[in-house]
């Protein structure tokens, strides 16, 4: 075991402040990235978990929600003509106002509360909810390309009934409904037949319904243009090859993406957003500033506390260059411990966030970048602390 690592293990209390500073610097960045990417994943969860191997978007689209993702309906037969394509379905959706319907007991309580408040009959109450919602559509057929892989048979059968909708469990309280309740969507009665899990959307609640229900509500897309196409092929392992062949066949009329390509593009589009980029850039700057200042001062104080030990090493013939290497190695190990501490803190925060219905997702590439970032902070702090070694004079041992 090296001297630097032994020093860190036996005198860990002196370096704890530096480790904590690095951990919170990493948490500051990771938590914000996790929330922003998690919000984006909430929008696309229905698509990310669909059975589609390939998505076909308009030629100018850079992500699912960036640019013209729709395309002419006549492109469907062109995609279907590929011999390996087995299913093609357009992604349809809508949006509107959702209002809960109170039971007679809830209505009586609301009227009593309104009466006490002096508002009279019809006064507003906390039980009445009215929200704008997104609507996404599935084809309520087992194994169909638009059905998410985690939908059970019973959920699909429930959504097959007219006017049945699915709501994520995190949106129930916000919408004021529970399973079995009736509600109004754009003035028409629907009922909550399915409660899903793992599809949170903290910006705008999302309803899932069958394509037939959307058609009965008069909001199905029947025009000459359709939304992005979800494509299933015979062998999912050949998705990249088939997507390339479809793009060649399209000749610029559309672009076929593998599901992973589109997921990466959606995440990058979220992080490339100007406002989000400014927020994350400022967070990174704060993390860098706080991390360097606290880690530098902590390392400096710890080295000063061990200055007699360093002086003893010099008296034994250890060169100043070797002492600098010890300090830099010590900084490196502090950075490594800080990375693990940041990971532990981020994991705990993500558990709390998920319990509260806030989605968080951490791209592996970004986790690697933040880990390197923390080690660099620690190494820079160690470099700034090297000057204190000038005080490690052997003559000081005689005082």
Which labels suit this protein?
single chain, 399 residues, alpha+beta, six-stranded mixed barrel, 12 strands, 52% helix
Would you mind describing this structure in some detail?
The chain has 399 residues and is α+β, with helices and mostly antiparallel strands. 52% of the residues lie in helices and 16% in strands. The protein is built from 13 helices and 12 strands. The chain has helices at 3-10, 12-48, 75-80, 104-116, 153-160, 172-175, 211-216, 239-250, 259-272, 274-305, 307-315, 320-355, 364-384, and strands at 54-57, 71-72, 85-90, 93-100, 130-138, 164-168, 182-185, 188-196, 206-210, 225-226, 229-233, 255-258. It has a 6-stranded mixed β-barrel. It has a 4-stranded antiparallel beta sheet with strand order 3-11-1-12. Strands 2-10 form a two-stranded antiparallel ribbon. Strand 7 (182-185) and strand 8 form a beta hairpin. Helix 1 (3-10) packs across helix 2 (12-48), helix 1 packs across helix 12 (320-355) and helix 2 packs antiparallel against helix 13 (364-384). The longest helix is centred in the N-terminal third of the chain and has 37 residues, at 12-48. The radius of gyration is 29 Å and the shape is elongated. The two termini are 32 Å apart. The relative contact order is 0.20.
């Amino acid at each position: 075991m090296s001297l630097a690592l032994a020093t860190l293990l036996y005198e860990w209390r002196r370096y704890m402040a530096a480790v904590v500073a690095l951990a919170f610097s990493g948490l500051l960045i990771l938590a914000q990235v996790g929330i922003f990417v998690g919000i984006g994943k909430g929008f696309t969860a229905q698509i990310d978990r669909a059975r589609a191997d390939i998505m076909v978007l308009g030629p100018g689209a850079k992500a699912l929600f960036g640019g013209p993702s729709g395309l002419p309906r006549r492109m469907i037969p062109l995609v279907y003509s590929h011999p390996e394509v087995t299913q093609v379905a357009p992604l349809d959706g809508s949006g509107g106002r959702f209002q809960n319907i109170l039971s007679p007991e809830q209505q009586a309580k609301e009227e009593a509360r309104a009466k006490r408040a002096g508002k009279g009959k019809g006064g507003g109450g906390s039980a009445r909810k009215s929200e704008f919602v997104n609507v996404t559509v599935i084809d309520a057929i087992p194994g169909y390309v638009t059905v998410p892989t985690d939908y059970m048979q019973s959920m699909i059968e429930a959504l097959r009934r007219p006017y049945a909708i699915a709501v994520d469990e995190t949106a129930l309280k916000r919408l004021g409904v529970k399973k079995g309740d009736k509600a109004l969507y754009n003035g028409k009665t629907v009922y909550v037949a399915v409660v899903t899990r793992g599809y949170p959307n903290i910006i705008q609640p999302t309803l899932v319904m069958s394509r037939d229900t959307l058609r009965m509500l008069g909001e199905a897309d029947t025009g000459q243009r359709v939304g992005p196409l979800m494509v299933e092929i015979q062998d999912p392992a050949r998705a990249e090859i088939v997507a390339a062949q479809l793009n060649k066949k399209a000749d610029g009329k559309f672009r076929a993406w593998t599901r992973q390509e589109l997921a990466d593009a959606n995440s990058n589009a979220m992080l490339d957003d100007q406002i989000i980029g400014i927020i994350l850039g400022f967070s990174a700057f704060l993390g860098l500033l706080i991390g360097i200042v606290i880690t530098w001062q902590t390392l400096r104080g710890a080295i000063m506390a061990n200055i007699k030990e360093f002086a003893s090493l010099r008296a034994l013939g250890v060169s100043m260059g070797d002492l600098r290497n010890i300090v830099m190695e010590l900084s490196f190990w502090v950075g490594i411990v800080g990375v693990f501490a940041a990971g532990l803190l981020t994991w705990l925060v993500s558990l709390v966030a998920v319990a509260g219905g806030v989605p968080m997702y951490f791209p592996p590439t970004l986790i690697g970048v933040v880990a390197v970032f923390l080690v660099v902070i620690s190494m820079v702090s160690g470099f700034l602390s090297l000057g204190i070694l000038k005080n490690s004079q052997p003559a000081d041992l005689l005082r």
